[in-house]
Amino acid sequence: PSSGEIACGDSSQPKSIAQGEPKKQEVNVKPTASSAKVCSTRQVCVSFSERKLYLEHHPYPEDIFLVIEFSQATLAKDLGNKKLIYAKAGIKEYWVVNLKDACVHIFRDLVQKVYTTEFTLTTGTIAPLAFPNIQLQVQRLMNP
Questions:
Q1: What's this model's pTM, rounded to 2 decimal places?
Q2: Are the C-beta atoms of 59 and 29 separated by less than 8 Å?
Q3: What is the pLDDT tens value at each position of the chain, 144 positions in all?
Q4: CA-wise closest residue to 6 among 46, 63, 66
Q5: How far apart are CA 94 and CA 128, in angstroms?
Q6: CB-count burial class (<10 Å; 0-12, 13-18, 19+) for 36
Q7: Alpha-helix residue ranges (DSSP H) falling in the chain
């Protein structure tokens, strides 16, 4: 994606879900399948790093600004165990797009490996903490 948008979907057909100016840096969005089951869970990782580093290793937690899980069949795991794993790893912000109930669970403000702010949205827009000028439409997240 260009430096002014965040996209999601498979790498061959990414869809833009946000517009804005992310501090004049390139945003790397890497969709990954996190389950062997088709369409059960998808994950999007938003990070900054030089492209060549991805050939050597996955991004480190300090490089990741936001992880978004698209969840239906694995919702309990994504809201429970995965949230704890991401917090312990130092992931600054974690969202779970609940496709079944059409809402987004937001976990942010990491303090001592615990998310201190948790809330749920069904409509409106939200900006990732790292990119306050990029507004994501909640409804567009439901159908990436």
A1: 0.69
A2: no
A3: 333 344 444 444 444 444 444 443 334 444 443 322 222 346 555 555 455 555 676 677 777 888 888 888 899 999 999 999 999 999 999 999 999 999 999 999 999 999 999 999 999 999 999 888 888 889 888 875
A4: 46
A5: 9
A6: exposed
A7: 75-79, 81-89, 138-141
